[in-house]
Amino acid sequence: MRINCPHCGLRDLAEFTYQGDASRALPELSAQTGSWNAHVYDRENPAGLHREHWQHSGGCRAHLRIERDTLSHAVSEAVMVRPSPPVKNQPIRSRGRK
Amino acid sequence: MKPGNKRQTRRNSHFTPFVPALLSGTTGIRAAREMKEYSALKVLTNTLTGNRGWKPAWRKAEPKPSYDVIIIGGGGHGLATAYYLAANHGITNVAVLEKGYLGSGNIGRNTTIVRSNYLLPQNIRFYEYSMKLWESLSHELNYNVMFSQRGILNLAHSPAQLDDYIRRGNAMRLSGADGKVLYPDEIARFVPGLDLGGSQRFPVVGGLLQPRAGTARHDAVAWGYARGADRHGVDIIENCEVTGFLRDGGRVTGVQTSRGEIRAAKTAVAVAGSTSRVLKLAGIDRLPIESHVLQAFVSESIKPFVDTVVTFGGGHLYMSQSDKGGLVFGSDLDGYNSYAQRGNLPVIHDLMSELLALFPGLDRIRLLRSWGGVMDMSMDGSPIITIGPLDGMYLNCGWCYGGFKATPASGWCFAWTIAKDEPHAINAPFGLDRFYRGMLIDEKGQGPTPRLH
Ligand SMILES: Cc1cc2nc3c(=O)[nH]c(=O)nc-3n(C[C@H](O)[C@H](O)[C@H](O)COP(=O)(O)OP(=O)(O)OC[C@H]3O[C@@H](n4cnc5c(N)ncnc54)[C@H](O)[C@@H]3O)c2cc1C
Ligand SMILES: [Zn+2]
């Protein structure tokens, strides 16, 4: 499996760390305990397309959102979790220091 | 006596007729008297008559329109459940529905390690009960599951890690399991091939041995339970995929399958890695489960090299040697959601490095086969054996990658729960509601991060 990092291009799986299901949305702060329990513990766990977070931990360290087929491992989409507009060519160092 | 001899004695202990009575109320002696299908005499007469006198281990049953209990999933847990429903509770109008062939799931894919070396009281109680069932399983089933109590040695690589293991060992002994701390000089005698030089990045400072742990022949466990269930009248129906649930209001009243509708008063689900997929058919979209792939490996056959199960604590590696001579080993999950029964190279790379760190002498051994299985990883790393989540339904899942050793106790407890409509004290803590009541059983303390359990 390889992942196409928007910064670094197609890189080997070994450089990435899995961070789990990206389809979950945080409940409202005022939500009942039950919704929070469900948010923390329940997963859709689909056989097929899955939206998930990965970090390019052994590369540019960006957090990515990926769409991947859990039946074939084929990655169909990989984007930045928070795309900052001029992503291209912007040195990563300066962004962390703002 | 050399440790090897001692182990040999233990290994054969299940052939003695003086096995202790099980809590199930079934004794090995009774089982042996009732089922004389396999005996030395039968082997002899069949040898002389061209092996035509054997009965198939289970019938190719056709689905009937209805049953008292349907069990979805013909893996170890489904088959054990069927067996104990019949043997312990007299419920024999039972069907096991398997979408592929019997044993095609994780029961036929695991690294066959059986142990009860847990820390948390709920886990030790459950897995130690399973261990007791293992110790007389061949007798109970009159089927040699090749349970070999060769021990498991968890290596510790720092004083802190050893302290942690000692704590676990004490917890095990307090709960009636066995455990023993070994130091490097004893380890050197116990596992001769290990690098104990002390100069490695992860030197071996000690280890926790559970002498009663070991391995079993995984296929034989499936076949033995299948035969036992079949002989009690259970229908084992292969190539029968459940594609939907029959409902009467909120209640589950049976299943739709690739071989037609089948009704049942009680429908039990034991489909391991496919749990989310199957429950989705019943309208349950979210569960505290993620499916992940775990890989396993077998090397070419070599002469006797290691006669126990060894685990590496500096990363994650477990290794034993099969009776055919191949080294059988595995490591962590690949670590991402997967329903593909195959994994990727990074884990293989890590695993091989760990193997060589422990056993430098294996540097030229060749890998024979590797494969993967889909694990039902729960959010706290512990299983779920419960009534529900719908009326008329019973659920058994969340085995993570340690469900082989649980097979006897899982089937025993699940059968109890189905028969009596209440959990046994041993599986009562393993309900689905624990996630919503804050009663998690998180052996590793990893939180809701399934890839780390
Ligand atoms: C590589 C690997 C190594 C492992 N090592 C160990 C180990 O050393 N020790 C240990 O204790 N455990 C180990 N395990 C874990 C253990 O194998 C599993 O936890 C256990 O086998 C799961 O229970 P089961 O046997 O019932 O599952 P399975 O054998 O997977 O049974 C589930 C069955 O359900 C069937 N099914 C699915 N969907 C449907 C449907 N819709 N209709 C009908 N049938 C369906 C499947 O075909 C399958 O046969 C390992 C697992 C793997 C993959
Ligand atoms: Zn990158």
Would you tell me the overall average pLDDT of chain A?
88
Q: Fraction of residues of chain B in helices? A: 25-40%
Figure out the total of helices of chain B. 13
Look up the CATH topology of the domain at 1-23 and 48-82 in chain A: Folate-binding fold
The count of β-strands of chain A is 6
What is the CA-CA span between the terminal residues of chain A?
34 Å
Mean pLDDT of chain B: 92
CATH class of the largest domain in chain B: Alpha Beta
**Widest beta sheet: strand line-up of chain A:** 3-4-5-6
CATH 2nd-level architecture of the domain at 1-23 and 48-82 in chain A: 2-Layer Sandwich
Q: Which protein chains are joined by the largest interface, and how many residues does each one contribute?
A: A-B, 25 and 25 residues
Bound compounds? flavin-adenine dinucleotide, zinc ion
Q: What is the end-to-end distance of chain B?
A: 39 Å
Radius of gyration of chain A: 16 Å
Structural class of chain A: alpha+beta
State the helix count of chain A: 2
Instruction: Report the strand count of chain B.
Output: 18
Give the DSSP E fraction of chain A (strand runs of 2 or more residues).
25-35%
- What value does the Rg of chain B take, in angstroms? 22 Å
Describe what you observe in this structure.
- The complex is a heterodimer of chains A (98) and B (453).
- With 98 residues, chain A is α+β, with helices and mostly antiparallel strands.
- Chain A has a domain at 1-23 and 48-82: Folate-binding fold (2-Layer Sandwich), CATH 3.30.2270.
- Chain A contains two helices and six strands, in the order βββαβββα.
- A four-stranded antiparallel beta sheet of chain A has the order 3-4-5-6, with no helix packed on it. In chain A, strands 1-2 form a two-stranded antiparallel sheet.
- The mean pLDDT of chain A is 88.
- By secondary structure, chain B is α/β, with parallel strands linked by helices.
- Chain B folds into two domains: 66-139 and 217-288 and 380-452, 3-Layer(bba) Sandwich (FAD/NAD(P)-binding domain), CATH 3.50.50.60; 152-211 and 290-377, D-Amino Acid Oxidase, Chain A, domain 2 (2-Layer Sandwich), CATH 3.30.9.10.
- Chain B has helices spanning 3-11, 28-34, 40-48, 76-89, 121-135, 137-141, 159-174, 184-190, 218-231, 275-280, 345-358, 407-420, 434-437, and strands at residues 66-72, 94-97, 113-114, 152-156, 180-182, 206-210, 214-215, 235-237, 242-248, 251-257, 260-269, 289-301, 309-312, 317-321, 326-337, 367-378, 384-387, 393-397.
- In chain B, α5 (121-135) crosses α12 (407-420).
- Chain B starts with a helix and ends in a 16-residue tail after the last helix.
- Residues 1-33 of chain B have low confidence and may be disordered.
- Zinc ion is lined by residues 5, 7-8, 56, 59-60, 62 of chain A.
